[in-house]
Each structure stands twice: as structure tokens, then as C-alpha cells.
Specification:
alpha/beta; 9 strands
Length: about 290
């Protein structure tokens, strides 16, 4: 019996990094196709099955707007036929997308060329794109690229490939509230009320990955209570999420600077749940600084 075809579908906002993700998949040995019209998705998969390819990656975007509504049903059918399918949606906040389009001087696919107010036209095009892609986003693993570099995105994509498409994967992500809440979070926990190692001179320049910071935080009952409450909440709902056929669940933990408290809790949660579930961890601010 031949192995199942492994397929990654990349969708997302224009300017969010789909080309970068596709290049990462190409480096990982996937046969990649950019901007495949949805009408050709099923025939393309059938052809690749006949030719014996085992890894394919397809990027679709809003340029196929009129036929995008048919994609969710196609994906459901492909999974029923045994295709090991992972769907990735790249997102970014509107401010970031506007800046990227301004820097590259590219025209948004949905922009009105004759608009007199170019900034307003771009923002309107981005919001329209969000509406058109909403259903695909709902059914995919979302990665917020607003504050990450291309090399980080490539790393995130490659880590995603290590997770079986048929198994729920927990993604724990630390972040700083001062830089905004991640768009890819399914659950967000605010831990800014916990004791802050930043105010300890010997800990300020360390992170939640250092044992000295971990020891400091473990000494406080409220930190242990927060960990226990988050762990209990996630554990309570995990099996319901599995029944809902979720492939990824992203749990974001935020503190003021994204360096100490949130990092420590992400490390502890990933370690605890990693004993029973496939887990990934990300430290948005630390990764960006690295």
C-alpha cells in the first residue's frame, strides 16, 4: 500500500509572507505550486497521486476570489480520500500590511486603481480580503507574521511539518502586550498581574528560560496558581477540541515585555503537555531579538 499524499495548503493575506512559506516548504522537499486556481485543486491532486509524488504544497490567494468558496468542501473531500492535509493561513495586522505594500510599492490585488485616496483604498482592500478569506482562516492553522522575520516564519513552517496532520498539536506562544496580541491565538491569558522579575536587578537581563528566573517565579504562590488554572482549563477542553477535528490550538501567554513571566509559563506548559500531546512553543519577542 503506497503512503498517503502529504499536502500543505497555504493561504492568507496578501503581503503576509506566503512566498516565504512556500520557499521553506520547497527547501523541505515539497513540490510547490503558487496561485493554483481552486478549480484545478482536485485534478492536480489526482495527477500527483498518479505520478507518485508524496509531498506537495499549494498556495492560493484572493486572486481566485470568485472560486474560493468551493475550497473548504474540496479539502474535506481530499481528507476523506486519505490525503494527509495541513492547512496554513498567514495573517498580519492591517498596519503591517499597509507598511509592507508601501515599502514594496506593489498594488494590492483588490485595490481600485482609479482611487484618489491610495491609503484608504489599500485599507479597504485589505479589509475586503479578510472577509473573503474568513472561512479558509477558520479551518486553518493561523500564523501571525506581523512581528516576525522571514527566517522566523521559515522556522515556524518547518516545525509545523513535524506534527502529524491527523493529530491535534498544541502551540504555546509567549508575547508582550505592549506589542499587541498575536492574531493567531485561539486562547489568550494575561499574566501581567504576577510578580515581575524585571524589577530584580540580577534577573532583569535574563529570560524565563533561565533557571534563576524560573526559581524566582516558582517561589510565588500566585504564579503556581496561574499555571495550575491554565493547565486545568486546557486539559478540560482538549478532548472537545479533538472531537471538533482541530489540528492546531494556539495558546498565547502575555506579560508586559514578553521576556520573563510569559516565557516561563510557556516553557512549563509545553513541558507538561508535551508528555501527552504533540506540542510546539514560540517566544515571539525572544525569537525576534535572536
Amino acid at each position: 500500500m503506497k503512503p498517503a499524499l502529504e499536502m500543505v495548503l497555504i493561504t492568507g493575506m496578501s503581503g503576509s509572507g506566503k512566498s516565504v512559506a512556500l520557499h521553506a516548504l520547497e527547501d523541505a522537499g515539497y513540490y510547490c505550486v503558487d496561485n493554483l486556481p481552486p478549480e484545478l485543486l482536485t485534478p492536480f491532486v489526482a495527477l500527483e497521486n498518479q505520478q507518485g509524488l508524496r509531498k506537495v504544497a499549494i498556495a492560493m490567494d484572493v486572486r481566485s476570489a470568485t472560486s474560493l468558496p468551493q475550497v473548504p468542501k474540496q479539502l474535506q473531500q481530499l481528507r476523506a480520500e486519505g490525503v494527509a492535509l495541513q492547512s496554513l493561513f498567514l495573517d498580519a495586522n492591517t498596519e503591517t500590511l499597509v507598511r509592507r505594500f508601501s515599502e514594496t510599492r506593489r498594488l494590492h490585488p483588490l485595490s481600485r486603481i482609479d482611487a484618489t485616496d491610495q491609503h484608504r483604498a489599500l485599507v479597504e482592500a485589505i479589509e475586503l480580503e479578510r472577509e473573503l478569506l474568513a472561512e479558509l482562516r477558520e479551518q486553518a492553522h493561523v500564523v501571525d507574521t506581523s512581528m516576525i522575520r522571514s527566517s522566523q516564519l521559515q522556522g515556524y513552517v518547518k516545525s509545523m511539518l513535524s506534527a502529524p496532520a491527523s493529530q491535534l498539536t498544541l502551540v504555546f506562544e509567549s508575547f508582550a502586550f505592549k506589542r499587541g496580541v498575536p492574531l493567531d491565538a485561539d486562547y489568550v491569558f494575561d499574566v501581567r498581574m504576577l510578580p515581575n522579575p524585571h524589577y530584580e536587578s540580577n534577573l532583569r537581563d535574563l529570560t524565563g528560560q533561565h533557571e534563576a528566573v524560573a526559581d524566582y517565579l516558582r517561589e510565588h504562590a500566585e504564579v503556581n496558581d496561574m499555571f495550575r488554572h491554565i493547565e486545568q482549563f486546557i486539559s478540560h477542553w482538549l478532548h472537545a477540541l479533538v472531537r471538533d477535528h482541530r489540528s492546531y490550538v494556539t495558546v498565547a501567554i502575555g506579560c508586559t515585555g514578553g521576556q520573563h513571566r510569559s516565557v516561563y509559563l510557556v516553557e512549563e506548559l509545553a513541558r507538561t503537555f508535551g508528555q501527552r500531546w504533540k506540542t510546539l512553543k514560540r517566544h515571539r519577542e525572544l525569537d525576534a531579538a535572536g
